[in-house]
């Protein structure tokens, strides 16, 4: 593990200095009782007293970037964004290349498919048992070390003598580290961008990049595999992880751990204690489920895209259209919400979009053609933009000392339930027609979400009240 005690000379200034003026433009709207966590205090400049005997200077207009431009104005975020882009593209390419490599070595479709599954299953283990790392150690150290561990695992994959069993174990290790890295980075964004609208837009940008990487990464991976071997493509991932580590090490500040130096006790106990506190609090638990449940159902059409294309008799071009439709809808809707809507409106659409977002999948019950199916998928993807408002509610609800563990658990649960959703959709399709399975996922998911939406509404604190978590307590407490 590299030392994190030094501070480079060209370290970026505190992000709050860069972003104070940016926050002021977007936070003056009032928020209704149903969206209380989106309230932000107005930011005002301190008064300047002119020297005695002189007239006060006329205020000079200061251009303030708005929307996503304000986020990119923060130097630390630019480093985080570039590192995220590099590592994400590397992961997508390596997953595709590793799947091809395992199939070349074994001629086994089962082991090749298992390579993809192992990218999801260890999330639950890593996100639950290692979550304490995110709050126990400085964020920059955790992020850089995670990238270096992943680079080391991928470098061993490249060695010609590595057996298939070793490749699968290394794949599990990378997947177990991923929720810790993602949770730590998400919690660190609140330090870099503050807890207001800049944080929400920063999270949105990283999410949009993730969706875009799924579209671009497989295309890039396919082109690479056309000119280099699978091991050669995997080698590129080593470089992307190392570049990500360098960007995070040199481009972000070294902040202290959230739990303070010299924290004693078992890491495992600390991780499980954090999970107990997060899941034991009524408000935070409801918000977590609102993150988790819609994706668990909305993956059904993606998991069954190929069987559905075969069922309605369309070719590979239409299949590609169906696979791209939902990510395109999500990206377009979230970009619009982040650029054109203010914090208050984003907060107001959370519950309606979450409650109705799965209903377009019911159109599958009519067994429509490729065009109408693509429209339904675009609408379902667009409804996922509700998370841009939900991000603000969640960061407001979780106290700072628990934030790293909460974000890690959020990531682990999200990925795990998507994997479970895909598996259950495939199992159901063994007994029922594909179009009925997808339509059923839309209807069943909506029925599950309606009481959850009501619970989120019931637990919403009044304006000016912030949720805090106390050991053994499930309550709301005011904080000044």
TrEMBL record:
Subcellular location: Cell membrane
Superkingdom of source: Bacteria
Transmembrane segments: 79-103, 109-130, 142-162, 205-227, 286-306, 312-333, 345-364, 370-394, 406-428, 434-454
A Pfam family that the UniProt record links to this protein: MFS_1
Record field: compositional bias (Pro residues): 43-60
Topology within the bilayer: Multi-pass membrane protein
Ranges for region Disordered: 1-60
Family matches, as InterPro entries: MFS, MFS_trans_sf
The keyword Transport is assigned to this record: no
Record CDD domains: MFS_MefA_like
SUPFAM superfamilies, per the entry: MFS general substrate transporter (SSF103473)
Keywords carried by this UniProt record: Cell membrane, Membrane, Transmembrane, Transmembrane helix
Protein name per UniProt: MFS transporter
Source organism phylogeny: Bacteria, Bacillati, Actinomycetota, Actinomycetes, Kitasatosporales
């Amino acid at each position: 593990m590299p030392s994190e005690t030094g501070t480079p000379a060209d370290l970026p200034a505190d992000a709050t200095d860069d972003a104070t003026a940016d926050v002021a433009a977007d936070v003056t709207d009032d928020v209704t009782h149903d969206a209380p966590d989106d309230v932000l205090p107005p930011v005002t400049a301190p008064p300047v007293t002119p020297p005695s005997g002189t007239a006060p200077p006329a205020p000079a207009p200061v251009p303030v970037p708005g929307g996503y431009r304000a986020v990119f104005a923060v130097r630390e975020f630019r480093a985080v964004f570039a590192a995220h882009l590099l590592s994400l593209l590397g992961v997508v390419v390596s997953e595709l290349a590793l799947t091809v490599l395992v199939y070349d070595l074994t001629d086994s479709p089962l082991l090749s498919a298992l390579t993809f599954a192992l990218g999801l299953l260890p999330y639950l283990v890593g996100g639950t048992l290692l979550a304490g790392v995110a709050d126990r150690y400085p964020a920059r150290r955790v992020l850089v070390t995670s990238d270096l561990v992943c680079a080391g695992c991928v470098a061993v994959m490249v060695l010609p003598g590595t057996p298939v069993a070793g490749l699968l174990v290394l794949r599990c290790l990378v997947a177990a580290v991923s929720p810790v890295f993602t949770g730590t980075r998400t919690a660190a964004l609140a330090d870099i961008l503050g807890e207001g609208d800049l944080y929400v837009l920063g999270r949105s940008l990283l999410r949009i990049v993730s969706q875009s990487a799924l579209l671009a990464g497989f295309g890039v991976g396919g082109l690479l595999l056309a000119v280099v071997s699978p091991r050669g493509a995997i080698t590129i991932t080593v470089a992307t992880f190392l570049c990500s580590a360098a960007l995070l090490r040199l481009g972000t500040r070294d902040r202290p751990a959230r739990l303070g130096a010299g924290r004693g006790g078992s890491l495992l106990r600390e991780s499980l204690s954090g999970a107990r506190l997060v899941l034991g609090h009524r408000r935070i638990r409801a918000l977590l489920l609102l993150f988790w449940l819609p994706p668990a159902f909305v993956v059904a059409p993606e998991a069954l895209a190929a069987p559905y294309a075969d069922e309605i008799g369309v070719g590979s071009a239409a299949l590609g259209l169906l696979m791209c439709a939902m990510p395109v809808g999500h990206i377009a809707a979230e970009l619009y919400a982040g650029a054109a809507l203010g914090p208050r409106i984003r907060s107001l659409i959370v519950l309606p979009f979450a409650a109705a977002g799965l209903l377009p999948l019911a159109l599958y019950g009519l067994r429509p053609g490729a065009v109408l199916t693509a429209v339904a998928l675009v609408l379902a993807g667009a409804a996922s933009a509700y998370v841009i408002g939900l991000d603000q509610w969640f960061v407001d609800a979780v106290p700072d000392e628990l934030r790293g563990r909460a974000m890690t658990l959020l990531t682990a649960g999200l990925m795990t339930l998507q994997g479970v959703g895909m598996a259950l959709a495939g199992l159901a399709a063994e007994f029922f027609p594909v179009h009925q399975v997808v339509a059923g996922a839309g209807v069943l998911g909506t029925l599950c979400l309606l009481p959850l939406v009501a619970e989120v509404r019931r637990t919403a604190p009044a304006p000016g009240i912030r949720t805090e978590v106390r050991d053994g307590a499930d309550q709301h407490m005011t904080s000044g």
